[in-house]
Amino acid sequence: MTANVAGYLLQLLAASWLGVEGYSEFASLLAVQLLCAVPALAMQNVVAREVVRGASSRAVRAMMWRCAAMVAAVAVVLIPVVAVVLDVGVWAAAAALGAAPALVILSGEQGILQGGNHFRALATVLAMAGTARVVPALLALALGGGAAGALWAGAAGIVGAAIVAGRIARSTTASADLPADTDAGRESGPPKTVGVVPVLRAVQVQAALMALSSVDLIVVRVVLDEVDASRYSLGTIATKIAFWLPQAVGVVLYPRMAQPTHSARAIRDALSVLSLIGVVAVLGAALAAPLAPLFAGADYAPVQGLLWLFALHGAILAVLQGALLSAIAVERTALAAVTWIGLAVEVTLMLAFARTIESLIGTAVSVAAVTTAIVAAVVLRAARTQKAPADPVLS
Q1: Rounded Cα gap, residues 131 and 283, in angstroms
Q2: How far is residue 227's CA from residue 300's CA, in Å, rounded to a whole number?
Q3: Which of 69, 78, 84, 110 lies closest to 96 in space, CA to CA?
Q4: 3-state secondary structure of 356
Q5: Residues 320-361: pLDDT tens digits?
Q6: Cα 276 from Cα 313, distance rounded (Å)
Q7: pTM for the complete prediction?
């Protein structure tokens, strides 16, 4: 929760300090950074799953560093592409991509704690990482560093957080190379090795979700003018709040999703709780909407009546995230194809027809709702028809 609040504070203050003319660039670069965090999110989920199944921390850390090197190489190649597509400077594009390798290491350490059910230590790491990323970025903005300076400062904070997270994880699991037993216990046999392929499979699931949740912030710079693009970008803060608010649900239930004897019940519980929290988030956004111009400035008043719709978008995506997490937990990632199709439909509709803030967010909500309904229906049906603990949750 601390990390999420810090992130929202960064975006609110950036909207105020950069103004409607400059915030769109910052928000778009943040969206790129979020997409670059996809390998990190996949890393945490795969590491947690493998730790639950008996992999040693030594094995998963070796895999983490191999993946971080691959991500660094890809990030270098993508810098000029991002600069051209978003019409930003190379330095700014490099700032958005620079934190990607450190995020992989940081998330891997978080996965070790999550898979070992060390949730108190994990909460400490999450809060520390969020603060380390946001505080330097805020200082850079306050000193006039602009979007690029803020992102570089945040990247430096993430590097520091990754170092500290590694120390916390090692001290927490110092009693043994393997974490404490989970409910299902550890698998017996020789030491388990962990390859890069499972991460790549999980990456395509996380990439589909993150792309669907962020592509509107990239398209908006193509179809709207600078002022309306910034207003839309501010509205997406409500989307992010509703999307990330229930993050703890997946963090806590994910290890149980990875255990055959508990996965079906964990999936049903996760989707139910995520839906309930989503309803609360939408109502909260509707009630708090009049306060938006007070925090961000009067220039953003035109979007205050749409904040509930932005929150609905995030709430729907949170349910989709819970369903896709279950796919990673049981290594049945083909269901992500539905999300990729939804992404293609959304981009096509936005580029072809959306020319206002209202039509953009309306398109995003509609596509997300249909995509989530299909994925959730398949996941729940599979959970209901599970015959035995060894059966896969997804087919």
Answers
A1: 28
A2: 9
A3: 78
A4: coil
A5: 999 998 888 777 778 889 999 999 999 999 999 989 999 999
A6: 14
A7: 0.71
